[in-house]
Amino acid sequence: MAVYTSVSNKDLSDFLKNYQIGEVISLTEISEGVENSNFLLKTTFNSYILTLYEKRVNVEDLPFFMNLISELFKNGVSCPRPISNLYGNIINRCAGKYATIVTFLDGKTAKFTNLERCSQLGTALARLHLTTFKTSLHRKNMLGPENWLTILDETNDENSNLPSDLKQEAFQHIGHIVKSWPVSLPEGIIHADLFPNNAMFINDKLTGIIDFYFACNDFYAYDLAICLNSWCFESDTNFNTEKAKMLINSYQKIRKLRKDEISALPILTQGAAARFFVTRYYDWHHTPTDALVKKHDPIEYWNKITFLKSNFNLNLFGF
Description:
The chain is an alpha+beta fold. The protein has two domains: 9-104, Phosphorylase Kinase, domain 1; 109-317, Aminoglycoside 3'-phosphotransferase, Chain: A, domain 2 (Alpha-Beta Complex), CATH 3.90.1200.10. It contains nine helices and ten strands. The strands form three sheets. The protein has a five-stranded antiparallel sheet, with helices on one face. A hairpin with a 2-residue loop joins β4 (92-94) and β5. α4 (145-153) packs antiparallel against α5 (166-179), α6 (220-232) runs antiparallel to α7 (241-254) and α6 crosses α8 (259-286). It is globular, with a radius of gyration of 20 Å. It starts with 8 loop residues before the first helix and ends in a 9-residue tail after the last helix. The model has no long low-confidence stretch (mean pLDDT 93).
């Protein structure tokens, strides 16, 4: 989440005249994340999230995202529910951008992880995978391995404050990852961005999963690898194997991993780190200076790539 586009009182009034969600109490900008403009909308009926779509979100993908979370919600996955306007339309326009309103989930995003939160995350991820396996929806992963080197190449880093040799070294490391990528593993629709800031908790109880705007078809174990990277590295850059074991064991109580999925985890975690390194590297150099958004340091994920490359074994994940 982020804010690139401001919403005036008139913009909001014009937009909401076709909704029946009560009178506006407040509209608050949400600065977390990097992709879209997001606002917490409080009305006399309830609280909602208003999203204006920017950057990498292709408007042609919006029906997929909205249909996906609608299906997930109907099938018992705790996630936001899209709100239709008076004409039955979920996707509309606000402040000149395509926009949607979804329900707000109780709780707060995870500012830290612990064993219990990792356990609940593993269970929720497996249930999500089993649910999406049944759907006929499909969306190609536009940020898959075949795109990583292109994103890196298209980054204009002439005025970079990052190490001068980083880009060339990244080309070498990531090129090796792409060449080593698995050809065939169990797959279906994955979340693809299930960081702690996309999981809502009340204390240590998971209340739901948000932000499905990178959801796509890909390997289930790749989705698990994204979570291992984002939930199990500590702030001191050390990897917490106990958290990884808890996450994986909880996942496997719901959906058993195949042997080839387990064997692929070392390269999948490197690839998951590469995916977020290249997009952060691009955003570090191309995000508008006046955007209300916290840019994420690509070095964090570069360090994860190098660590995982140096610890290329299953012991890291408790096997």
